[in-house]
Amino acid sequence: MNGSIQRRVIFMTLALLLPVVSASCGGGVGITAGGGTGGTGIGPVTGFGSVIVNGVTYSDAGIDNTRFFDDHGRSKSDLMAGMMVSIFGSINGTSGTADNIAVLRHVDGPMDDNAVDLAANRLKVMGQDILVDTSTVFDNGVTSLADLRTLQGANVNHPELEVHGSLDNNGVIHATFIHKWSDDRVTGRDVQIRGIVSGPPTATTFVVGRKTVDFTGVPGGLPSGVAAGAFVEVKGSLRVSDNVLLATSVTLEDATGGQPSGSRAEVEGYVNRVLTANASFELIGPNGVQTVTWSTGTTAITGGTEADIGAGVKVEVEGTRKVGGALAATKIAIRRASNVRMESTVTAVTASSLTIFGKTVTVDALTQYKDDSASGLKTFGQPNILVGDTLEVSAYVDNTTVPASIVATRVERIGAIAPDRHILQGPLDSALSPILSIFGITVVTLPPPGTHFLRPDESEFATQADFFAAVAAGDIVKARGNQASPLILMNANEVQIEPTIDN
Known about the structure:
Strand content: over 45%
Number of strands: 36
Helix content: under 10%
Number of domains: 6
Number of helices: 3
């Protein structure tokens, strides 16, 4: 039985047995119905100590290999932060009990030719556009897009990758997790894509992203309802001669997961389009597009205002499922892209924040935690962080607060770093040669070779003057160097212009 069928069997069983069943929809879903009501959570894993998804901690004590579903034969002990999962069980507030866990992935297959675009922080796998930011987790021998570009070389290799994430209104997958299966294409290996059908199917094919799917090998033919705009999961193999996906199964997904009206849900995803100003919009999730409604003065909006809700904006919605499947929002939280990166020593820690580079970074229920230090704790979170630990922090700037705040999307504890390897990345306050200012921290540069000045594609500027002519306030810049003072000064041995990710 494949993963999609398993998920549906589980869901239908729960729908019959439980009084309230949640949706399998959105970039992240957590049911908020209290009292231990049955529900579903779907989203990226943010921590362990059981499994944490969307701020809900699910006890997984009853999960064994008969209750854990993964097409690659993994068990629950193989789960990692950033992986997308669906969890079926019961929830009471911020605690829950998992009955079943299924691993979700958006695309699984070989990289395309010329797959990596460092200047845009993107890559292509199986014809799907994939965007990474500072919070994307890389796994199994690769740590960045630059590693993948080096591995591919001049299109000599086509590494097999598994990508987890959420789809935006332009068909781009925002990656939360990227795992490398092999250094090169494996002939005949099973592949998979999940996404929106981009045009009317022909008698034998349709297209997802830029990948042509031949469905002539699907038993029973194409399922009813597969049309332009439908959200599907396709499995099969890749025909290398023309890169066509030869489908063995095509599954039409339901954006609401069949969730009954009256159920409470928490959904994270990207706005596809606004339907009625200040009243409704379409939200894209990993199972398709659903309608969200809200009421001015009644629906709480954080991280921005109603005017900020537009196509391509990432939001988290809490609400109640209506008859017909729409989600009536009681709360909409606008989420920002992670353009901030800090890699240094922690100087202060509280239950809701940490201090790094002299700056207070706030953590919340959606902050992801990982321990990559010598301790290697699987169960790791804010209480485990100590003053003096070295952290790599991914974050975004919330400009709706006064003053603007830095909110962590991912916190990873790492081993001690060399004095000249501290990293500070964020929007420039100002750039006046030879000084950069990031978050009020003065970054001192020297003419080459004292400081290396890099473009987004990692090519090097010839001179210090060329770099400063190319940057301006608001641009995202990464500085690496000696943290001469934790509050005001960094001596940089390398500075690089980074792509700005809006959402």
